[in-house]
Specification:
It is a single chain. The protein is mainly α. The chain has 17 helices and no strands.
Length: 302
Amino acid sequence: MENNETKVGFIARYAKIATVIAVIFGSSSGILGSLTAAPSMAIGFWRLTVALPFFLVPALLNSQKREQLRNIEKKDYLWCFIAGAFLFGHFFTWFNAVKLTNIASAAVLAALHPLVVLLITIFVYKKKVGFKSIGAIIVALIGGVIIVGVDYSTFAGGSLDGNVLAFLAGTFMGLYFAVGDSVRKRVPGDLYVLLVFASCWVCFSIGVVVTDTQILGYTVMDYVYIVIMAFICQIGAHAVFNMCIGHVSSLYVSTWEAGEPVFSTLLAVVFLAQIPKSYEIIGCVIVVCALLYYNRQESKHE
């Protein structure tokens, strides 16, 4: 089917800028999540419950969108469901990892998703990636390690189960991004987001039942923070990521998402008045320089 995105919108024209903005929005997840007492399964369920109608209702009310939904091939429906399951897997393993191991080691292991996307890009999609771009990605990841201040003792002091879950969180995130590289060529961005979010919502709904997680009875402010997360993190970050993948590679999105520790550090300064330590500043500078260099290398191949 023809991807109905011939009209150049904001995302298509400014996909790279939109990606960076989405990373900034996603960086607020940790701060907002720490403000609510609700467990991760309940947060995920309500985030998707709030965000999903913003893509479901327009698709149902628009006859052209309904026709496009009917014309999507079964294999693409399957891949959209798989992408949503990967997103759920990322959320589930990440939130459980930080409860079992120290946050520093979990953050580093979960941030390895660009390497997963890089391997899939080269060996599955058979796309060429320049050595300079690969080097920039690795340097950006090293900068992220410096920001969270980890060393061998940090990993040794953490729980093995927690570290494994954090690694799986990064793997799921990489797979989630990589699927979009193929499917977004055939499925319009808004419908892809709808199907992925719907799949993720189904997974969370099943998870809530299986784990007997309470979804009601929290404080008003807990729900306020969850709604804010739905708009800023779910729609402003993940929905935009998936829309951008139709115009830039999943590797590009994943690499810039690895810069989240930089923006998290800056947001902590603004909202929590946490002054970064010298090694955090050095790490931030390394990440930013590496990402800008990566962006320059990718621009040369456009």
